[in-house]
Design brief:
single chain, mainly alpha, 434 Repressor (Amino-terminal Domain), 60% helix, globular
Length: 124
Amino acid sequence: MMCELQTVCIRRAVGYNKNMTNKDLYYRELGQRIQRARLHQKLTQENLGTLIGLSRTSIVNIERGRQKILAHTLVRLAHALHMELSDLARESTEDLKIEELLQHLPESTKEFVRSAVGPVKSKG
C-alpha cells in the first residue's frame, strides 16, 4: 500500500482535485493512460480517432476524462494501442508506477516528486 504522501504526489501529478468523485478520477486516469499509449505509438489524436471510428474531438475529451467510453470503444482503443484491455482499464492510480506518471512532466518537477516520495517498493 502506498503511503499518504505518495498518494498526494501522484494525485497532483494526474491533476486530481478534492471535488472529483472516484468516477471522475477513474476517467481522468483512464484518459491519461490512453494519451500515454497513443504518444508511445506515435499516433495523433486524429489518427487514433480514425482507427477506432471517433472524431479527434472525442479523443481529446476522452484523454481529458470528460467523455465516458462505451465498452466496445474501450476494446477498440486497447486493440489500436496494442494494449491488453485489463491494462488499459485498470482501476487505480495505486497500480501505476510513479515513473509512468512523471513521464511528461518537466525534469525539475520529476526530481521534486522523487525526492518527496522516496524509494517506492513494488507490490508483490
